[in-house]
Structure formats: structure tokens, C-alpha cells
Write a structure and sequence with these properties.
Length: 691
């Protein structure tokens, strides 16, 4: 007996291979691997030629059967595996994609496209420790297992649902709106979140208000109304009246001190890491994902695309090795020695279930450093920053809590009341690791006693303006997507969305935000996101339709879950889905879609005919349709920016651009238009014409 194991990613394949070599199994295994998704559902025109044209009359497009095509980016991988299968050397296949719905989808869409008929066994584990891997190899699950079969169906229907909704509604909206308007199950509700905030900001009218600050020498206190607890006054006269009632001194009426013990924050899920990196370094979520991916490939951190904030117990029992990898770094050396010398302390953390809990694992566990030390590996400054965030989170969970005393004091002067707050750090605990990042501001109050009278030095009116709600940043927008349940009212659906962990997944959220930017519906402004007029128009045109609400995801996630649990048959699901798609598409066709026109960016005059050259999707095109003048935005993997195009059209050289030559080698060169043809200009005296 011989099986072919196909892993979702090469790294997992190598891990399994390593364990397999040490085992005695009654069958032999060969190994290969995907690199994520290798096939995707076909485009509409590949089903029917009349679906090529974007035409309201053919909507909704509903294929009779769903077929897959090979993804361009994965063509090589697909061909290799197909070739291996054609050798007919195998009795069965082992599906070793991630243990979850997406993993099932990745495997079975390939299996169908390849027309494979071999029986399939499922390698199922969410952990990558040697123990978990060998257990999974010994207990391969039969493909007819009910749970696996239901999961596979749910996975397939989810991707079909996204296809039907995305393509039909995008086409309906685009034809109605007169420009490309992409609609998606996750993308559109995300846009709606940003637009809602933008409208709140646009409608916001700043209003003046006043506060009264009391100077007591060693500290300051703020006026408040003891009946309403309000500390703002609407007009200046009121504020002046309050000041006039203040006497020479203030008496301490009440002192409340509360001790707060704050444990180290949870370990990083991708979302947590993205939020922290955005807060400390201003990295965008996709930047953080890219950097984390690179650290993972350098074997320095564990798998980054994870929703989990917990470690498996078995992993935690070996945590010494991971900690050791940090011991060689100067800044952690003594901390690690301290931790390792107290194994009882490590066990205490494991037992607390706060950071280590087998029940809280998803497809993967929390991100943490591996047992591999940085050593001679070269890290970019960004990689180093992310690595240290992850390292600190791990060290922190074994360190003492941060303890702080929070004191609130109430003072009285005649019939006027004031409040003062103070913080005193009792134990820095794990926060010593973060000294370089954030200065925890200590605002100690002097020692006070009730009925003590303090002289008033000064009382002044602070005049301020109310401020609009803040725009979303990478960190807060990811959070809003994760907690999308907050935006819906139905309690039951709220819970469904909470269980589904919001809209999108940790692997896709950053991508969706970038997509909204690239299609011009939202824009980055400094650290935050602004909805563009186009984005606002799209959401306002769609109106109250449920595609703008996370509710849609909630309702259909519930149904998919019912398929997995065997509560709903796939055929019933498909029937309901078709009804929904038909209704929704009809609804969209009736919409009055009025959106801002696409801004035309003119980059210069055409060298052939003199008409304006405008920026298009793939390049810079002459606006005179008869003239075929065109400069691509991407030449040999080098990006031609609008500024480059402007320079070319005025006969100048571009900046130095990084190209990938046909040989596969990379190099820098400038570009220049000579007789309407692009030429490379090298700093070295060699010259080469674009072939
Ligand atoms: Zn032209």
C-alpha cells in the first residue's frame, strides 16, 4: 500500500515528513504540497459565452454545475502534482490541508479539477507538534466520515455562495452605476462600516464647552456636578458663576483607592499582532502580515495566519526551548535565565488556562517564537520590530502581573465639587519589557486624608470644542470586522457572528481592506481610513439592503454550520441560496445606482497624436481610441508609476526601477521613450532594448 500525502503548505509537509521518518506505518507515504489555493471557480464566460458581456438580461448567472480552473499563480504547482498522480503509483491520497472548512475547500476543489478518483484519507490535526502529527498519522480519518463530509459540503457551498453573490451583484451594480462597482459578502459590509463613520464625521458640528480646573499646588482637580457626574458646561456664564462661588480652600470629602492587578495580555493571534504593530509602529495590517510571513519562512515564529490566542498544552510543556532561543539576545538574557530557573512558575502559567488551553485552539495556535534563535540570520528593521513584539508577549505571560493603585479623590469648596485622579505603580511586573515602548504615566497624588483642608492656588476656565468621532485605523477597523456582531441588533445572529469571529478571517481581512483601497472606495489618510465619495455613493445607493450588513454573513454562517452539524441538507441549502441570489439580484437591478464618476488622471500628451494620455487599470492609454499608444503599468515586474509615465511622455528618464530580467535575475534601470519605444537606461555603460 502506498499513499500520496498532499499538504496545504510546504512547511507543514516537511514537519509531517520529519515525524513520518521516525514511525513504522503499515503503508508507505510520498509527500507533496500545495501553496494555498491552487484552483478557483471558473469565470462566468468560461461557462457560457453569452455571460461574457455585462448585461442585466442574463442576470442572475447560475451555472448548472460548478467547475474549477487552475489559478494562474499556482499553475506550476498544479501541473507538478497532476503529473505525480498520473504515474498511477498510489492506492490512496492523504488530504493534509489545514483542519477546517477552508482546508477542505482547497483540497476538494483540486481533487475535482484534477479528475482524481483515488480514495482519500484525512490527516486531521490543528497542532504541528511531533506528538500531534504522529497521532494524526496513526488515525487517518475515512473520507466518508460524516463530519468530514458535511464540512466538505459546507466549504464548497460557501465558495459557491461567494461566487454567485459577488459576480451577479457586481455586474448588476456596475451596469446600473456606469463604472466598475465591486460587491462582496465581506467587502461591502466592511465598506459600510467605514462609510457610516465618515457620514458621522461629515454631519458632525463641533460645539464649544467649558471645564473648570482647580490648582492645588501638588495636583490639579476638575469641577463636576455631583448629581449628574457631568464635568462639562455648555456656556461661559455658567462657568464664571461656578468660579465665583469657590472659596479660599477645598476640603477632602472622599478618597477611594482601588488596587488593579493586570496580567500580561493574551498571546498574539494575527489580529492582535496587527493591532499592536499598528499602534506602536504604524504598520498597516497587510504589512504586518507580510513581515510575519517572512519571519515564519525564516523559521523564527510559528504559523502567523491564526485566529487563536492560546497554545496547546503539549507545546507549552516544551516552552523552555522557545524561551532558550531568546536567551542569546542581550535584552532578554537575564529575564530568560530567571524564568527557566523557576519551572514551577512556568507550570503555574500553563495550569491557569489563561494562555494555554487545548479547548481554545482553532486551525492553529497563537503566534509565538520558535526554538530557532536569530543567530546569524539577517532581519530587516521591520522584521526585527515584529519579532520583538512576539518575543515580549511570550516572555510576559510567565512574568508577574502589573499592579497599580488607582485613587479617586472628591474635594469640596463651599457648594462646589471637584474630582482628582491619581495612579501609583505598585509593581511593574511584565511591563518592564515595554519600558522602551510606552511611558506609563504615573500621576501620584500626595498623601491625603478625609476632612483635610487644602489651599486653592488658582481656578481657571478651560474652553474646548467637542470633537468628531475618530476615523478607523488599521487596528480599529480590523477590530470592527472581528466584532461585526456589534452592528446587528438580533441577539441570536449576534451570537452566531461572535462564534464565527466576525466577518472575514484573519488570513483575508487585511487583503479585503487593501482591495477596497485599490478600487477607490476607501483611501488611506495618514494612519486612518477615509471613505471616498465613490464609497459613500455606493453604500447610499444600495440603501438598507442586507448586503451592506454583517447580518448576511451571520445568517449564512448559521446555515453552513447547520450543514456541518447535519441539521440542514446541502440540497435544501442550495435551494435557499438560489432563491436568495435571484431575489437579491433582482433587487439590485431595480436600484437607482448613482455614484461619483471615476476621476480621470491625465499623465501627459500622446507622442503619436497629441491627445491626453490617461491612467487606466492596466496602464497609461491614449484617450483617442483610434490611436493605440499604451504604456503598461507593469514591465518585467517593475512598477511604472504615474510620475514615471509623466516623465516618459516629456522625453525624460524615469527614476531607477527594479526589473526582473528574462534570466530571472533582478536589476535596476531607468526607462526612456526613444522613437515611441521604451528603452532601458543603465547606470553602467551597457545598453539593452526591450525585447
Ligand atoms: Zn494617441
Amino acid at each position: 500500500m502506498k499513499g500520496l500525502l498532499i499538504a496545504e503548505k510546504p512547511s507543514l509537509m516537511r514537519d509531517i515528513q520529519k515525524v513520518y521518518k521516525k514511525m513504522q506505518l503499515p503503508f508507505e507515504i510520498d509527500f507533496t504540497s500545495f501553496v494555498g489555493h491552487v484552483v478557483e471557480l471558473k469565470e462566468p464566460h468560461e461557462y457560457k459565452s453569452e455571460w461574457k458581456k455585462w448585461d442585466l438580461n442574463v442576470l442572475p448567472m447560475i451555472p448548472e454545475r460548478y467547475e474549477f480552473r487552475v489559478k494562474k499563480s499556482a499553475y506550476k504547482v498544479y501541473k507538478e502534482i497532476e503529473q505525480i498522480l498520473k504515474t498511477n503509483r498510489y492506492d490512496f491520497i492523504i488530504n493534509a490541508c489545514d483542519a477546517g472548512m477552508e482546508g477542505e475547500n482547497i483540497f476538494y476543489s483540486f481533487y475535482k479539477r484534477a479528475g482524481c478518483k483515488l480514495p482519500v484519507k484525512r490527516f486531521w490535526t490543528s497542532q504541528t507538534t511531533d506528538g500531534a502529527i504522529s497521532k494524526a498519522l496513526l488515525n487517518l480519518i475515512d473520507e466518508q466520515d460524516l463530519l468530514i463530509r458535511n464540512l466538505r459540503n459546507a466549504a464548497m457551498y460557501r465558495s459557491i455562495f461567494d461566487w454567485l453573490i459577488g459576480l451577479n451583484l457586481t455586474r448588476a451594480a456596475t451596469v446600473k452605476g456606469g463604472r466598475i462597482i465591486k460587491i462582496g459578502r465581506v467587502m461591502t459590509p466592511t465598506l459600510a462600516i467605514v462609510v457610516k463613520r465618515e457620514l458621522e464625521i461629515l454631519q458632525f458640528k463641533p460645539e464649544p464647552y467649558f471645564q473648570i480646573e482647580l490648582d492645588l499646588g501638588q495636583f490639579k482637580a476638575m469641577w463636576f456636578n455631583p448629581e449628574t457626574n457631568e464635568n462639562k458646561l455648555k456656556n461661559l456664564e455658567e462657568a464664571r458663576a461656578v468660579i465665583s462661588r469657590i472659596g479660599q480652600g477645598a476640603v477632602v470629602r472622599d478618597i477611594k483607592t482601588e488596587r488593579k492587578t493586570i496580567s500580561a495580555p493574551p498571546l498574539h493571534s494575527l489580529l492582535e499582532l496587527q493591532k499592536e504593530a499598528n499602534k506602536f509602529f504604524g504598520f498597516t495590517s497587510s504589512e504586518t502580515l507580510k513581515i510575519a510571513q517572512s519571519l515564519y519562512e525564516k523559521k523564527l515564529i510559528t504559523y502567523p495566519r491564526t485566529e487563536s490566542k492560546h497554545l496547546p498544552t503539549a507545546f507549552a510543556q516544551n516552552i523552555r526551548e522557545n524561551l532558550q532561543s531568546l536567551a542569546t539576545l542581550e535584552e532578554y538574557g537575564s529575564t530568560v535565565q530567571n524564568l527557566i530557573s523557576r519551572p514551577d512558575n512556568i507550570q503555574k502559567t500553563i495550569r491557569s488556562k489563561k494562555y494555554v488551553d487545548d479547548k481554545k485552539l482553532t486551525d492553529h495556535h497563537a503566534i509565538t517564537v520558535t526554538e530557532v534563535a536569530i543567530g546569524r540570520k539577517k532581519l530587516s528593521p521591520q522584521e526585527s520590530k515584529i519579532y520583538h513584539l512576539i518575543a515580549r508577549r511570550l516572555l510576559a505571560i510567565f512574568m508577574p502581573a502589573y499592579v497599580i493603585d488607582k485613587t479617586a479623590v472628591v474635594l469640596q469648596s463651599n457648594d462646589v465639587f471637584f474630582k482628582a485622579n491619581g495612579n501609583m505603580v505598585i509593581e511593574k511586573g511584565y511591563t518592564v519589557l515595554y519600558d522602551a515602548f510606552k511611558k506609563k504615566q504615573e500621576t501620584p497624588l500626595p498623601t491625603l486624608q478625609v476632612n483635610m483642608e487644602l489651599p486653592i492656588r488658582d481656578a481657571k476656565i478651560l474652553s474646548k470644542m467637542t470633537e468628531p468621532p475618530a476615523r478607523y485605523t488599521d487596528s480599529t477597523l480590523l477590530d470592527a470586522m472581528f466584532h461585526a456582531g456589534r452592528f446587528i441588533e438580533d441577539k441570536e445572529l449576534q451570537k452566531v457572528l461572535k462564534d464565527a469571529e466576525g466577518i472575514g478571517t484573519s488570513a483575508t481581512r487585511a487583503e479585503i481592506i487593501e482591495k477596497l483601497i485599490s478600487i477607490g472606495m476607501i483611501a488611506r489618510e495618514g494612519k486612518s481610513f477615509k471613505a471616498t465619495q465613490f464609497g459613500i455613493d455606493v453604500i447610499q445607493s444600495i440603501g438598507k439592503h442586507d448586503i451592506v450588513s454583517p447580518e448576511l454573513t451571520a445568517i449564512w454562517s448559521k446555515k453552513l454550520k447547520d450543514i456541518v452539524d447535519g441539521q440542514l441538507s446541502s440540497s435544501q441549502f442550495y435551494k435557499e441560496m438560489l432563491t436568495y441570489v435571484k431575489q437579491t439580484t433582482d433587487g439590485f437591478i431595480c436600484l437607482d445606482m448613482s455614484v461619483a464618476e471615476k476621476q480621470v488622471v491625465v499623465v501627459g500628451k500622446c507622442l503619436k497624436c497629441g491627445q491626453p494620455v490617461v491612467e487606466g487599470f492596466k496602464g497609461y492609454t491614449c484617450s483617442n481610441k483610434a490611436c493605440k499608444f499604451f504604456i503598461s503599468k507593469m514591465i518585467m515586474k517593475g512598477k511604472i508609476t504615474p510620475t514615471d509615465a509623466k516623465k516618459l511622455l516629456t522625453g525624460k528618464e524615469t527614476r531607477e526601477i527594479r526589473f526582473t530580467w528574462k534570466s530571472g535575475k533582478k536589476g535596476k534601470a531607468k526607462l526612456k521613450l526613444v522613437n515611441e519605444k521604451l528603452e532601458f537606461v543603465f547606470s553602467a555603460p551597457t545598453k539593452q532594448t526591450k525585447g
